[in-house]
Design goal:
The protein has 376 residues and is an all-alpha fold. 68% of the residues lie in helices and 2% in strands. It folds into two domains: 201 residues, no CATH class; 85 residues, no CATH class. Keywords: Membrane, Transmembrane, Transmembrane helix.
């Protein structure tokens, strides 16, 4: 049966299968021509989940993966919810490590989708309704898939090409029937699991204070940052922090550690800016050039002196103009800063760019530039 399922999986992968056999190519063409299953391209992720479950239907994580895929099919909200639960599961599967980072990213996804208070919105999700919708979608997809397979088995072209080999499709139908029966309880169970884990993570969220400041990193105020910015902050903490500790344990000098931490911080910053919208990145580069005399931020030697030399040979203060020790540079390299950036406006700008609203994007970029660089 596994051989039959693997063969049929090659059919359903369609264009994503780099090396389809002749038989797979023919059957794929027949199946996708059946009107009742003409949207199969939209549900290939579901079929991929079924393929994995056919190998081990007792694997809880495979059912959770299927539930997340089905959530993604919910109209309007599906893509947002799918993103939320994918981040959640990555966090859970790591044993609950990096909870604050996972929470920040989830809140950023929701905030970026324009859902207002992300914690309130997530807590109010009608998961029971979503579970029913997910199960309904699952049953519809499975039923259409079975009907498509049955039609293929009875088509004269398929019979002429494959003869008795088409009997393997009967094995596929049997496996799909088994998974459909299991799904009636496993999918709602997976949805309840997702809701439980999400609620436990949301319990860590603390509301921003009324004066606009925050007591912790995982607040609603911080959730207004774009997901890419949060990825950058996570990279700074992990890539620099872990290496600093190992270098200290190895007895490296404070200067060696400071130079590494500073260089790595600049490298992470460049990676983030390279992945940022080019016009927005230019605003950031101008801000750094104006403040530090370098588009990637202050140089190690400038931090040690507390000053930099500008293009005219004049000495300009860096920060407060106070020379920093290597220990201070190490600590500073692990702080992400960016508090002077209007993250709410940047989110709006990204949204305008994605929607193709060029005029709105241009106006927002000009506003961001004025706030960050003091332009007119």
């Amino acid at each position: 049966m596994d051989e039959a399922l693997d063969w049929f999986w090659g059919v359903l992968q369609g264009d994503f299968n780099e090396e389809p056999s002749l038989s797979q190519t023919i059957v794929s063409g027949i199946i996708t021509a059946i009107p009742i299953i003409d949207q199969i391209a939209d549900v290939r992720d579901v079929i991929a989940n079924l393929h994995q479950l056919s190998k081990d239907s007792k694997d809880t994580w495979k059912w959770v993966a299927l539930a997340i895929t089905l959530i993604g099919l919910i109209p309007i909200l599906g893509s947002v919810l799918k993103g939320v639960f994918k981040i959640l599961i990555q966090f859970v599967r790591k044993g609950g490590k990096h909870a604050d980072e996972a929470l920040e990213m989830i809140l950023a996804v929701v905030r970026g989708a324009g859902k207002g208070d992300p914690v309130k919105w997530l807590k109010s999700l009608p998961m029971d309704d979503y579970a029913r919708q997910a199960l309904k979608n699952f049953n519809e997809i499975v039923n259409k898939l079975k009907l498509g397979i049955s039609d293929v088995r009875h088509m004269w072209l398929a019979k002429a090409v494959f003869g008795n080999k088409l009997k393997r499709l009967e094995l596929v139908e049997q496996q799909i029937d088994k998974l459909k029966a299991l799904g009636q309880s496993k999918i709602p169970e997976a949805m309840r699991f997702l809701k439980k884990e999400l609620d436990e993570l949301l319990a860590r969220a603390k509301p921003a204070r009324l004066d606009g400041t925050a007591d912790a990193t995982n607040t609603l105020a911080h959730s207004a940052k774009p997901l890419m910015r949060l990825d950058y902050e996570v990279a700074v903490r992990r890539r620099i922090g872990a290496k600093v500790e190992s270098m200290k344990a190895a007895g490296r000098s404070s200067e060696d550690i400071a130079r590494f931490a500073h260089a790595e911080r600049r490298a992470i910053g460049k990676e983030a800016k390279d992945a940022t919208d080019a016009d927005l990145a230019e605003v950031i580069y101008r801000r750094n050039q104006k403040t530090y005399g370098d588009p990637l931020g202050p140089k190690y030697e400038d931090l040690r002196r507390g000053t930099r030399i500008d293009e005219h040979g004049d000495e300009i203060k860096v920060g407060r103009g106070k020379p920093k020790t290597n220990e201070e540079i190490i600590e500073g390299a692990q702080r992400t800063g960016g508090d002077d950036f209007p993250w709410d406006r940047i989110l709006e700008y990204n949204s305008a760019k994605q929607s193709g609203d060029a005029d709105r994007a241009k106006a927002l970029l000009a506003e961001i530039d004025r706030i960050v660089n003091g332009g007119k």
